[in-house]
Amino acid sequence: GPVLVPILGDQLSHALSSLADRDPADTVVLMMEVSEETTYVRHHKAKIVLILSAMRHFAAELRARGWTVDYVALDDPASTGSFTGELARAVDRHGARGVQVTEPGEWRVRQAMDGWRDTLGVRVRILPDTRFLCPLPDFFAWAGARRELRMEYFYRDMRRRTGLLMEGDKPAGGRWNFDAENRGAAEPGLVPPLVPGFEPDAITQEVITLVEQRCAGHFGSLDRFAWPVTAAQAETALEAFLTERLPLFGRYQDAMLTGQDTLYHSLISPALNLGLLDPLAICRRAEAEWLAGRVPIEAAEGFIRQIIGWREYIRGMYWLEMPGLAEANHLEATRPLPEFWWTGETPMRCLAEAVRTTRDNAYAHHIQRLMVLGNFALLAGIRPQEVSDWFLAVYADACEWVELPNVAGMALHADGGRLASKPYAASGAYIDRMSDYCGSCRYKVKQKTGPDACPFNALYWHFLARNEARLAGNARLFQPYATWRKMSADKQAEYLASAEAFLTTLEPARPGWAR
Ligand code: FAD
Ligand code: DLZ
Ligand code: SF4
To answer: Do 123 and 7 fall into the same domain?
Structure first.
C-alpha cells in the first residue's frame, strides 16, 4: 500500500517536510477535521472557521497539484473524533505500509504521535518542522550553554544565521535593536489604513454554517469574518501591510486607541501559524522595503525581530519547558478568571475594549494582550491555567506552542522568570500614557485609592506587596520596592484595602466557557 501523510490544521504549507520526498503516485495525504481538536478548548467560532476553511482550501490545492487527498469532514458520521482514531481507520482503509508526518506544534499531539509508533502496526516517521528557522536541537544547545535565556541574544544569533539586516558581521544601521525609536503613544485622531478583508466564499460559507450548528455556545462572533483562508489571500494581506502599515509599525507598536482594532499591526499571525505564509520570506520582503528606502530601519528591524526573534524564541522555550510550563504557577495565583473576560461587561474601559475586539475579531494586538489583559491577570493573581485556557480559546492565531509561553512566561511570570527578566506589571499610568481609554472610563486614572480610583493603581501595590518574598530580590524591581517601603503604614494599608475591596467585586466565570 501507499505511505500515508497526515497533514494537521496548522501544517498548511506546500513545502512541508513530510511531503518533500514523497511521490504523489505512492502517497495518500490524510486531512482530518476532528471534534477532539475543535473542543479541547471551546475555541472562538472564527478560529474554528478559519482553520477548517483553510484546511479545505489547502486540500483542494493539493489535489490540483496531483496529490491524492483523503479528507475526513467534521460531520462524517463514521468519524472517531480524534487524530489517533482517524489515522488508524485510514491505515486500514488504504492498506498503508507506513506513515510519514511533520512534528506537530503541540505537546499534547506529540504525545499522541509518539504513541502511534506502538499502536498502528506500521512504520511511523516523524520529521522536523522546517518551517521554523531555528531547529529545536540548535535551540536546546543555545539554551543549554546559558544560565539566563534572554531573547535579545538569541535574536542576534538569528540575525547572523539568516543574514537579515546584516552588513557583513555588523548589524545594519549600527545597532541590533531600535526599540528606543519605537514605542510611541497613540495620538487621538490617528487614522490607520484599513486592513483588507476577504469575503467568505462558498467553502467558507459552508464551514460557517457547520460551526454555527455545532459550536453555537462557543465564544465570539462570526459577523465580521474576513481572515485570509488561502496562501494567495494571505499574500494580498501581507502586501497591504508592507506598503501601508510597516513604515509606522515600530512607532505605534505599543499604542492603543478606542475602536481602532488593528492600528499598524500586520495581522499575519493567523496565516503564519497555519502555514499559509513563510516566516523567512516575510522577513526578506520587509528587509527589501528598507533597502528600497520605503521604510525606516526602526520599522523593519522591529518587525523582523518579532518574527525571527520573539516567535522563534517562544517556540524554542515551549519545547524546552514542556510539560512543566502548562502547570507552572511560580506566584501561586489562585483567583478564578472573572466572568467579564467572556462578556466584556466591566466599567474598566481598557479591558472592555480588549474583550470587545477579541469577541468581534478573534484578535487583539500585542499590547492589549500583554499590558491590559495580561497585566490585569498578573496583578489580580488569576490562576495561570485559567488565563491560558482563555487565550488559547479566543484568538485566531492561538496555537499552544506560542500562546502558553506568552501567557505563563511573558505575561504572568508563572515560570519564575525563565522567559522574561521581570514581570510586566504596570499601574494605570502606563495604560493612560499609551492609549486614549482613560478619558472615557468610569474610573479616574489619577486617583490612587477608593471606589472611583483606577483599579490598576491599588492592584499594582497589592501585587508587589503580596509577592515581596519572591520578587524583592529582582534588581529590576528595586525602585518600586524602595518606593513601597518608603510609604507610610497608613498609605500602604489604604492601597491594600482598596485593592481587596475591588477584588471582592470580581465574579468568577461561569463554568463551560472554556472547557
Ligand atoms: P504584529 O504586531 O504585526 O507582529 C508581527 C508578528 O510577530 C506576529 O504575527 C507574530 O508572528 C510575531 N510576534 C510578535 N510578538 C510575538 C510574541 N510575543 N510571540 C510570538 N510571536 C510574536 N501570538 C500568536 O501567534 N498566538 C498566540 O496565541 C499568542 N498569544 C499571546 C498571548 C499573550 C498574553 C501575549 C502577550 C502575546 C501573545 N502572542 C500570540 C504574541 C503577539 O501578541 C501576537 O503574535 C500578535 O499580537 C499577533 O498580531 P499581529 O500579527 O498583528 O502581530
Ligand atoms: C485548532 C484546530 C481545530 C479547531 N480543529 C482542527 C481540526 O479539526 N483538524 C486539525 O487537523 N487541526 C485542527 N486544529 C489545529 C490543531 O489543533 C493543531 O494542528 C494541533 O494542535 C497541532 O499540534
Ligand atoms: Fe483602564 Fe484604569 Fe484607564 Fe479605566 S482608568 S481605562 S481601568 S487604566
So the answer is: yes
Residue 431 CA, closest ligand 3 atom number: 8
Query: What CATH number is given to the structural domain containing 96?
Result: 3.40.50.620
Ligand 1 close to Cβ of residue 406 (< 6 A):
yes
- Taking only the tens place, the pLDDT of each residue in 226-283 is 999 999 999 999 999 999 999 999 999 999 999 999 999 999 999 999 999 999 999 9
Q: Which residue's CA lies nearest to atom 21 of ligand 2? A: 106
Question: Are 295 and 356 part of one and the same domain?
Answer: no
**Residue 421 — pLDDT band, cuts 50, 70, 90?**
confident
Q: Ligand 2 in contact with 51 (CB < 6 A)?
A: yes
Residue 333 in domain: no
The CA 8 to ligand 2 mean position distance, Å, reads 6
Provide the residue range defining the domain that includes 443. Answer: 340-503
Residues 306, 360, single domain; the answer is: no
Residues 160 and 309 in one domain: yes
Domain-embedded: residue 91: yes
Nearest CA to ligand 3 atom 1: 350
Q: Within a 10 A sphere around the Cβ of 6, how many other Cβ atoms?
A: 23
Determine the distance separating the centroid of ligand 2 and the alpha carbon of 400, expressed in angstroms.
11
257 CA from centroid of ligand 1 (Å): 18
Any idea of the CA torsion for 366, 371, 376, 379, to the nearest 10 degrees? 130
- What is the mean pLDDT of the segment spanning 159-165? 98
| Domain identity same for 252 and 108 | no
* Number of domains within the chain: 3
C-alpha 156/C-alpha 176 separation (Å) is 7
**pLDDT at position 186, please?**
82
Instruction: Please say whether the dihedral angle defined by the alpha carbons of residues 414, 420, 423 and 426, taken in this order, is positive or negative.
Output: negative
Cα 48 to ligand 2 centre (Å) = 9
Quote the ligand 2 centre to 10 CA distance (angstroms): 6
pLDDT tens digit sequence for 54-83: 999 999 999 999 999 999 999 999 999 999
Burial label for 327, CB within 10 Å (0-12, 13-18, 19+), is exposed
